[in-house]
Design goal:
It contains two helices and five strands; from the N terminus they run E-E-E-H-E-E-H. It is an alpha/beta fold and about 110 residues long. The chain has a five-stranded mixed sheet. A hairpin with an 8-residue loop joins strand 2 and strand 3. The chain starts with 8 loop residues before the first strand and ends with a helix.
Length: about 110
């Protein structure tokens, strides 16, 4: 739930595919969120969200990626209806790594 700090959401208990529902504007489609678990492949996290979203259509499905993708799962077959965004900590680590790589190139 720490990954959702700052959002108005309702936590979802005992649902394998959905961790939270973001409170959207009345009349708009719900936003269903799942956070990638530690050690879980991105594709393995996206599938339960996709299945849960089928029964809640229309809905926007968002998966928060918390771990780096390895070359082994870089081309996982991910559902097209699931939007993947980086967690804040993952995004910061990625930006720092990219900045360091750019500095090495310039040197």
């Amino acid at each position: 739930m720490a990954h959702l700090h700052g959002l108005r959401f309702v936590p979802v208990q005992r649902n394998r595919g959905i961790d939270a529902i973001v409170r959207a504007v009345p009349g708009s489609q719900p936003i269903l969120i799942r956070v990638q678990r530690s050690g879980e492949l991105l594709g393995d996290a996206a599938q339960p969200l996709h299945r849960a979203g089928k029964s809640k259509q229309p809905a926007q499905l968002i998966l928060i990626a918390t771990e780096e993708r390895t070359s082994a799962n870089l081309f996982d077959d991910l559902p097209v209806d699931v939007t993947i965004i980086n967690s804040t900590s993952k995004e910061v680590v990625q930006q720092v790594a990219e900045a360091q790589a750019m500095n090495l190139v310039r040197s």
